[in-house]
Design brief:
Layout lengths: L1 H15 L4 E13 L4 H9 L5 H10 L3 E18 L2 E18 H9 L7 E4 L3 E19 L2 E27 L6 E11 L12 E14 L2 E15 L4 E11 L10 H15 L1 E4 L2 E4 L2 E10 L5 E12 L10 H9 L4 E11 L4 E10 L3 E10 L3 E7 L2 H4 L7 E11 L1
Amino acid sequence: MKKIILSLLLPFTLLSQENQHTLAWKSNFLFESNGLNKKFLDNMLYGGYITNEMKSKWISAGDRNNIINSEVYNGIHYTYEFKKHKISFEFLDVNQLNANFTDDLLRLGLEGNFNYQQQNLNFDNTIIRANRYQQYKIIYTSTINNIMISGGLSYLGGNYHLSYIMETGNLYTAELGSYLDIEYSMNAFVTDTSKFSAFTNNGNGLAMDLRTDFDIQNFGIQLSISDLGFISWKPSSIGLSTDSTFTFRGVEIEDIFSFNDSILEANNITNNIIRTNNTSFKSYIPATIQISISNRTEYKYFKGYKIGIIKKWQPYLDNKALSFSKINQGFEESNFNSLYYIQSIIKTKHLDIIPQLDYGGYTNNLNIGLALAKGKKNQFIVGTKHLEDVFSGDNAQSLSFYFSFKKSF
């Protein structure tokens, strides 16, 4: 009888132990661009006149390739800690957009092809991909001989996916537009839009996490890989592929009453070029690989620092078997350059200040991050990864904001 009573009281005994349970809410908003600025974006979204000067500024501001990256997620995280072990559960709703396109495609979209007669406009390696999915993650962490090892497994419920992948593309405009030479090779995929709504399941997937923390002399070393995974989208999805070269010389109209028939004939040419079908396909979510070194200091306010490097891995297509070539493909097609960062923590009487300086990433810019943290058992954190753009006004190219609230009991 005593054993039964003890077993019934066990959950309440666990709850009474200090810092055994942690419940947290996390939100993150991120928009990054290496050329598009706030003024141009505001005019596109809310109406306004986009001048030729603004167009030229966007074209010249970026590198040869223009990158736009956005991520929005919200989620809840629960952790139970016992002795030297932890088990965590996490739910996230994730929205992602990543695009990479050439200056020539930007010129065509903003200015048209009139100013580029007798010139080639190149659109090679243009990619636009968007994802929305829900992530259900379980993580187990154990500490053995002062080495922390953590592993996680996620189920991914795919909500929506869209991708346009143009491997090669070229447009030549003859003088006075007498003819156009077009050459392109493209794949496109989109999930079933007839079933598109919040949390609709259009696909299923898996992801994994691995992490280890250990000390070498006075330095803390962290190695981790997170969100290495994919989503298999249902057969009701739509796939499009084309690999074509053709010359368009306009539509010759002999009889005004046969004008619509002429247009239909031109459309039939396009239908013969583009092949669409319902198909199942696989897409990858962006995986994050991180290596960092940290150390504590004896200064009163400056309590420590961390130096690290971050890489992203996300292939465009599932078109190669697992190999070194596949691994290299994922790094190249992530549109993410190695990000190097240094972070510190400054302790004050009322809160902790966490500054960060980093270089690289999706935009390959120098960024200043700043976070403010208050509390320990009940902790609130608010921060940005692009403090420099907060004061840049209309010239701001990036915007980020994140916060979290953690309660331990």
